[in-house]
Specification:
alpha/beta; Aspartate Aminotransferase, domain 2; 3-stranded antiparallel β-sheet; about 10% strand
């Protein structure tokens, strides 16, 4: 397609109320709506944790966009072409070339998913007593940092913790906070700065290119590496193109390369931007760090040329990387999320503003103002959404934040959110309307949700995945929803 034809298509998409998808549907997967009675029984059996529900009992699954996207025909064709040689398969070399070409890192180490890359990186760089600053925590990232003796410090701008602050780059680092931490603990006690683009726990908020450059300059002065969580960096690149002066004429692919150019390495869950059902990578510029990481990959993941992935997965990721920067595709992805957010917000439902790239986040503390924080309003709201319309969402509040390792007390982050995470290329606008209708209906009847839940089982690590709860009042807490 020529440049003029691409421009014409983008203009057509932009003028639509919401852009038509730049693909045709070739295969479908049946889903069904369960009855209210089925949902009540299923939720009780799952301990009021929607993550423990059988997927076949979920109508619209917005639990995560990780590994749940629809792969393209070319990705599936790549699956059939996968070279399953144990060492040095041709699929690895195609995968390696794709990461180098689109992200710009020389040293590429495959892992089975993003948290495996976080584990390897943390084992290589973090020692007990180290301090790791970042633009808001993510659950698995902080867990690996703390398991290796590190202490996480949030240096994101204050506005990121305010769901109503409608700013274009709420993922930015507060340079003053970072400078203060360096002065307090010393640069030699900071193994790296951990940067997310976009910031998941803030609702998918991007970091600006200008702020990245400022962070890069400050860390260069002190000899501190910068490591990027690149899982949704393509989405971040799109926001830079749309919102930051001086970048509108650059392609998403060019902006992605420039984001990565401001860093020394990245961890990647290819289950997000790259559309893959499994896969990830760790990439760095330092060959000595790369060698150390490869030695650990052999211990924990597999040989350094497959890293826990089959050859077919390496092919799917490589193709997905190429597709991820296609601008009609990323535009459609962002606009679908915006459509859902706009419908919900126009009805007066409190959400995180602005809407991020991968999810609409409900502000549970405002939505269920009558439910105390110690009764986990976000967890309560995830249950209500499932009972009402079979929608599975994610709690991103006190349950996800876990307990302080020093005191054992619950952490209560400023943001108590329910994340409606949209898988890529999976659901139609009709599905988004069903979700919006359910959220609006619950908000209108929110006074019926008068109390929350408490733990009946709580794991010590990443408790939100397997915890179980019970409602503190069986009726009318959940009796008013489910129809």
């Amino acid at each position: 397609m020529s440049t003029s034809e691409t421009s014409g298509l983008l203009n057509t998409l932009a003028s639509a109320r919401h852009p038509a998808e730049p693909w045709r549907i070739k295969t479908v997967e049946p889903i069904r709506m369960t009855s209210p009675e089925e949902r009540k029984a299923a939720l009780e059996a799952a301990g009021y944790n929607v993550g423990l529900l059988p997927a076949e009992l979920v109508y619209i699954d917005l639990y995560t966009d990780s590994g749940t996207s629809a792969m393209s025909d070319r990705q599936w064709a790549g699956v059939m072409l996968g070279d399953e040689s144990y060492a040095g398969s041709r699929s690895f070399y195609r995968f390696e070339a794709a990461v180098r070409d689109f992200y710009g890192y020389d040293e590429v180490i495959p892992t089975h998913q993003g948290r495996a890359a976080e584990n390897i990186l943390s084992r290589c760089l973090i020692r007990p007593g180290h301090h790791v600053p970042g633009n808001m925590y993510f659950t698995t990232t902080r867990e690996h940092q703390e398991l290796n003796g590190g202490i996480f410090h949030d240096v994101i701008v204050d506005e990121a913790h305010d769901p109503e602050a409608d700013l274009p780059f709420k993922g930015n680092v507060d340079l003053g906070k970072l400078e203060q931490l360096i002065a307090k603990v010393g640069a030699d006690q900071i193994p790296y700065v951990s940067l997310a683009a976009t910031v998941n726990m803030a609702g998918g908020q991007p970091i600006s290119m200008a702020n990245l450059a400022e962070v890069r300059e400050l860390t260069r002065q002190h000899g501190i590496p910068v490591i990027l969580d690149a899982a949704r960096a393509v989405e971040n690149a799109w926001f830079i193109k749309q919102r930051e002066p001086g970048w509108s004429e650059r392609t998403v692919a060019e902006i992605l390369r420039e984001i990565c150019a401001q860093t020394d390495g990245a961890t990647m869950s290819a289950k997000k931007d790259s559309f893959a059902n499994i896969g990830g990578w760790l990439a760095v510029r330092d060959p000595h760090l790369a060698e150390q990481a490869r030695n650990l990959v052999v211990v924990y993941e597999g040989l350094h040329t497959y890293g826990g992935m089959a050859g077919r997965d390496l092919e799917a990721v490589a193709q997905g990387i190429e597709e991820s920067v296609q601008e009609p595709s990323i535009r459609t992805r962002i606009e679908q999320v915006a459509y859902l957010g706009d419908r919900i917000a126009r009805a007066g439902v409190p959400i995180v503003r602005p809407v991020g790239g991968h999810a609409v986040c409900l502000n549970a503390t405002a939505f269920l103002a009558q439910v105390p924080r110690e009764q986990f309003p976000a967890q309560t709201l995830t249950c209500a959404l499932y009972l009402d319309a079979g929608i599975r969402s994610t709690e991103r509040g006190a349950v996800s934040a876990g307990r302080d390792p020093a005191t054992g007390h619950n952490r209560y982050p400023s943001l108590e959110l329910v994340r409606l995470t949209i898988p890529r290329r999976v659901y139609t606008q009709g599905h988004m309307d069903v979700v919006a209708d359910s959220v609006i209906r619950l908000h209108e009847g929110r006074k019926a949700l008068c109390s929350g839940v408490e733990f009946t089982y709580e794991p010590s690590t990443l408790r939100f995945f397997q915890s179980r709860f019970r409602p503190l009042a069986a009726e009318p807490l959940f009796g008013a929803v489910g129809r």
